[in-house]
């Protein structure tokens, strides 16, 4: 550092010079001291402020630590719950997979059963169609049997009517035979003299002594009542017709009864 001290011409000049320098340094010192005091005061304020901020930061850190601890506890709980849920989910998935496998087997069995049912259904439908055809044939035969039964009932009714008629004709024939037998018996029992008196004939030579097929009607008399030849022929024809009708009816009723 170079020395800037001037050369003084006198002692007084040097004293004044140093006085001025001292005053200048004194003023500089006062300024520095003032700045230093101001700096110290500002430093104290800044320190107080920093301490306050530090306290706030420490409090905040403490609060955050508590929050962190609570979050850690909650995180641990969530981990436990997640682990438990994962285990439960794994068990559920395993159970569902087992159920899916079981249901797949059941579905396969059901599909097989459905195919069997379809096959059985086809067989049943074929059987039903065959049964319907058989039923139609049976109904046809039944209707034919009903018609035949109705005809048989009519024939039975006709048979009953014919049997009544035959019985009536038999009764009439029996009555006629009885009457003819009576006539024959009475005719045979009459004396020749009575017949001669009733008919006006000459004597016993004209009366036959033996009976014949026309014995019930002799010499134009029946029970002592004179009859004509046409009446006699008509009575015989009626008896013959009745006998023929009875025989025809019996012949007709014979196949109906079987």
What can you tell me about this protein's structure?
With 258 residues, the protein is mainly alpha-helical. Helix content is 84%, strand content 2%. The chain has helices at 11-189, 192-199, 229-257, and strands at 221-222, 225-226. It has a two-stranded antiparallel sheet. Helix 1 (11-189) runs antiparallel to helix 3. The chain is rod-shaped.
Shape: rod-shaped
Strand content: under 5%
- Averaged pLDDT: 77
Tell me roughly what share of residues is in helical segments: over 70%
- The radius of gyration over CA amounts to 82 Å
Largest sheet: 2 strands, antiparallel
Topology, element by element:
Elements: H1 11-189, H2 192-199, E1 221-222, E2 225-226, H3 229-257
Antiparallel strand pairs: 1-2
Helix pairs in contact: 1-3
Q: How would you sum up this structure in a few lines?
A:
With 258 residues, the chain is mainly α. 84% of the residues lie in helices and 2% in strands. The chain has a two-stranded antiparallel sheet.
Relevant terms:
single chain; two-stranded antiparallel sheet; 2 strands; mainly alpha; 2% strand
